[in-house]
């Protein structure tokens, strides 16, 4: 017979989403148990956002230094990955030790349990041989895991996921990257800048296929200029690992080789083994269905990647705050994803918000688009080397508001901010047209894109 302990809240999974809920509720004085099977903080600080952005920052420095000739003198760049790997170990992950995060939570009054937890009926959670009787809320924040495609042979070879790629001490001599999505393009560029021979194999017709088609075309050009081999519309039909090398066979019959193989073909919510059926939820669902207040079932809330909405840290944090409010019984707006922003941190950065032109048309909207190219703007022309980019706006003609926008450029993710405000707040396009745009900023290209609206 297990010991039963009464608590107010149990949070299962202490990634960015769960950690935020657990800390906030503990601060509010609730009796909170946080259960984490691996590291408190989850994927983002240890194997994802933060260390990958450290690699990217280092790669960007190399790229800027390589742009000096013809612009500001001479430069000779000798890449060295040692400081990058050291920064990831020392500053980002504390050598994959979460003690600081555990202490932060317990100092706020929470109780931490390192275990894999599961639901054991309404208001019941089992973890580390203990049973918790939960008075107020169970929060499911179990995140996502890599989705591995059914390529024959893949299960038998030592492929990498983001975890191994992030943990390297040296860049590989060559890398096959299966998947040209967010991870694929970010890491392809970061590694090529350190001398890795990278080949990206993307099944769809373009890189970042969920983004506007102009984005995939632009990124393919940028990556090709940096010696990345990009194979789009390419399906892998088999893989072997022979003599310390991976050999990937494509549908065409061609075989490509690399020292390592990184599989970055998407992620799927982590629901297996959670005991969802014990609270009347579908254990085979693709994602945890939640309402606008993050409720999944009576007494059960869900936040973060597990909900399948966006799979971004900022979405997990946004949902976490809504769940906290709701658990505390405080009123507030429901989750609203109409202006969900995304930024892929390539150079140029790819920012987008709301609907792509295709998605808007699929929804039956009458749309028109406007495009401006960053190199044609004053700031882009001044910048010269490394000035690739574009602004694309999608207007709902009937309402006269932007429903989507894309901003690619040297500061594409930051330029997105104004566009996100416009989409979120449905500011009339007519009013945007009469704003002043500081000269010569990158965001001034938005004015050109507004002028271009309707001139398709
Ligand atoms: C390479 C890479 C780069 C990324 N870069 C960015 C970026 O730049 N910006 C951005 O916004 N997003 C980025 N993301 C996405 C971001 O990492 C995720 O959206 C974010 O981590 C989701 O947080 P989460 O709390 O939902 O889940 P997670 O961070 O996955 O945390 C879930 C936690 O639950 C634990 N867990 C699971 N099951 C159980 C159980 N039964 N019991 C106990 N614990 C359990 C897991 O061990 C894990 O620690 C990136 C992802 C990857 C892979
Ligand atoms: N900057 C950021 O915010 C950032 C960066 C990295 C990752 N992430 C998050 O992590 C998640 C996972 O990243 P990801 O790049 O793995 O997923 P993704 O969904 O962004 O891209 C996966 C890509 O793999 C392709 N693909 C799928 N099966 C394939 C196959 N068999 N062969 C070849 N290509 C195939 C898809 O068409 C897609 O382009 C993303 O959805 C994103 O939410 C965010």
Automatic annotation (TrEMBL):
Keyword Flavoprotein: yes
Similarity comment text for this entry: Belongs to the class-I pyridine nucleotide-disulfide oxidoreductase family.
Recorded superkingdom: Bacteria
Residue ranges of every copy of the FAD/NAD(P)-binding domain listed in the record: 8-320
Protein name: NAD(P)/FAD-dependent oxidoreductase
Coiled coil: none
Lineage of origin: Bacteria, Bacillati, Actinomycetota, Actinomycetes, Kitasatosporales
EC top class named in words: oxidoreductase
GO molecular function terms listed in the Swiss-Prot or TrEMBL record: oxidoreductase activity
Ranges of residues in domain Pyridine nucleotide-disulphide oxidoreductase dimerisation: 341-449
Swiss-Prot/TrEMBL cofactor(s): FAD
EC number: 1.-.-.-
Pfam families from the UniProt entry: Pyr_redox_2, Pyr_redox_dim
SUPFAM superfamilies assigned: FAD/NAD(P)-binding domain, FAD/NAD-linked reductases, dimerisation (C-terminal) domain
Keywords for this protein: FAD, Flavoprotein, Oxidoreductase
């Amino acid at each position: 017979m297990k010991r039963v302990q009464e608590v107010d809240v149990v949070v299962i999974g202490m990634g960015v989403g769960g950690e935020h809920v657990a800390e906030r509720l503990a601060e509010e004085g609730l009796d909170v148990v946080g259960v984490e099977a691996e590291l408190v903080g989850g994927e983002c600080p240890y194997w994802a956002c933060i260390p990958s952005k450290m690699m990217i920052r280092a790669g960007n420095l190399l790229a800027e230094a390589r742009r000096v000739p013809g612009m500001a003198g001479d430069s000779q760049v000798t890449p060295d990955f040692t400081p990058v790997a050291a920064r990831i170990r020392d500053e980002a992950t504390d050598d994959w030790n979460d003690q600081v995060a555990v202490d932060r939570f317990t100092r706020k009054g929470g109780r931490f349990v390192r275990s894999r937890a599961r639901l054991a009926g309404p208001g019941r959670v089992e973890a580390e041989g203990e049973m918790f009787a939960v008075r107020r809320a169970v929060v499911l924040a179990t995140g996502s895991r890599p989705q591995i495609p059914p390529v024959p042979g893949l299960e038998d070879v030592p492929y990498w996921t983001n975890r191994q790629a992030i943990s390297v001490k040296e860049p590989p001599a060559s890398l096959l990257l299966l998947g040209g999505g967010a991870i694929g393009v970010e890491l392809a560029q970061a590694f090529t800048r350190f001398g890795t021979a990278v080949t990206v194999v993307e099944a769809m017709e373009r890189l970042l296929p969920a983004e506007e088609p102009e984005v995939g075309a632009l990124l393919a050009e940028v990556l090709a200029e940096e010696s990345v081999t990009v194979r789009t519309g390419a399906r892998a039909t088999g893989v072997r690992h022979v003599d310390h090398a991976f050999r990937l066979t494509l549908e065409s019959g061609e075989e490509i080789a690399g020292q390592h193989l990184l599989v970055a073909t998407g992620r799927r919510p982590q629901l297996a083994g959670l005991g969802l059926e014990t609270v009347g939820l579908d254990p085979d669902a693709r994602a945890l269905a939640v309402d606008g207040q993050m409720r999944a079932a009576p007494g059960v809330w869900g936040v973060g990647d597990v909900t399948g909405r966006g799979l971004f840290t900022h979405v997990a944090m946004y949902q976490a705050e809504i769940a906290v409010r709701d658990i505390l019984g405080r009123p507030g707006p429901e989750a609203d994803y109409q202006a969900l922003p995304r930024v892929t941190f390539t150079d140029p950065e790819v920012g987008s918000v709301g609907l792509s032109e295709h998605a808007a048309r699929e929804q039956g909207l009458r749309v028109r688009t406007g495009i401006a190219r960053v190199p044609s703007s004053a700031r882009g022309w001044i910048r010269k080397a490394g000035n690739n980019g574009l602004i694309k706006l999608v207007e709902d003609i009937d309402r006269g508001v932007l429903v989507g926008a894309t901003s690619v450029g040297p500061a594409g993710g930051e330029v997105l901010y104004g566009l996100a405000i416009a989409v979120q707040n449905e500011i009339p396009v007519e009013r945007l047209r009469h704003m002043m745009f500081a000269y010569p900023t990158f965001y001034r290209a938005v004015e050109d894109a507004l002028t271009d609206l309707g001139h398709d």
